[in-house]
Write a structure and sequence with these properties.
Elements lengths: L2 H31 L4 H7 L1 H29 L4 H37 L5 H40 L4 H22 L6 H21 L4 H13 L1
């Protein structure tokens, strides 16, 4: 098995791990985010929140490894976009994910103080609400960073024909939909979130399975290697 085949399998597995971890995070913390008695709810579900935060961290780290693994391949086709992909999905998105994880863990600390009956309990409730709103804002910003990085990734894949163009083209369209969703949420425009999120979710899973089963297009790899050798 050559190194490109191994890279394809690893990237496919990373996508699946990241997606499953992200789904579990939403399942574990989704209902808590909308509860009016936030800190009371956090205390009652502390272990659930900590596990959810760990799944979120796993998602961030798994998906951050994708641009790292793909960089040696992508740079042979378009070095500028390969670097941009690492910056947006490998660095900026990871930082935002870690910040959200810290925010959730901070909520567990606030909830203990609140339940303990501190004199300024209302202050802790307000601080908890602000922390949650900050997490939501960071998540929205991350939803802008993510599709920008994805657009760079799928454009290189589409141009280089590293995978079938119907998969990379699907990724380009799905990334644009996520970008529309992010800006609409940022400006408070009502959207049907699942309509915008579902295409990128399905596309990433299809691409992941393709990479694990089929790998990259050998002719595209050989063509890029030949160009590098000539240069």
């Amino acid at each position: 098995m050559n190194s490109y085949r191994k890279t394809a399998i690893i990237v496919g597995v990373l996508y699946i791990v990241g997606t499953v971890a992200g789904i579990l995070w939403k399942v574990l913390t989704g209902s808590i985010q909308n509860d009016l008695n936030l800190l009371t709810k956090v205390t009652a579900n502390e272990n659930q929140i900590i596990i959810g935060a760990l799944f979120l961290l796993l998602m961030g780290l798994a998906l951050a490894m994708v641009p790292v693994m793909m960089f040696p391949i992508l740079r042979k086709h378009n070095e500028a976009l390969a670097v941009g992909y690492v910056v947006f999905r490998g660095a900026l998105e990871t930082v935002s994910t870690i910040t959200v994880v810290i925010g959730w863990l901070f909520l567990t600390i606030l909830s203990h103080q609140y339940i303990a009956g501190a004199p300024d309990a209302s202050y802790f409730q307000t601080l908890g609400t602000l922390t949650l709103k900050g997490n939501v804002l960071i998540g929205t910003i991350s939803q802008i960073v993510f599709p920008l990085g994805a657009l760079m990734f799928y454009w290189v894949l589409y141009q280089a024909k590293l995978i079938p163009r119907w998969i990379s083209g699907w990724g380009l369209i799905a990334a644009i939909l996520v970008l529309v969703l992010a800006f609409s949420e940022l400006f408070g425009i009502i959207t049907f979130q699942n309509v915008f999120d579902t295409p990128i979710f399905l596309q990433e899973m299809v691409m992941a399975v393709w990479l694990i089963v089929k790998g990259f297009n050998p002719s595209a790899i050989e063509s890029a290697s030949a160009k590098v050798d000539m240069n």
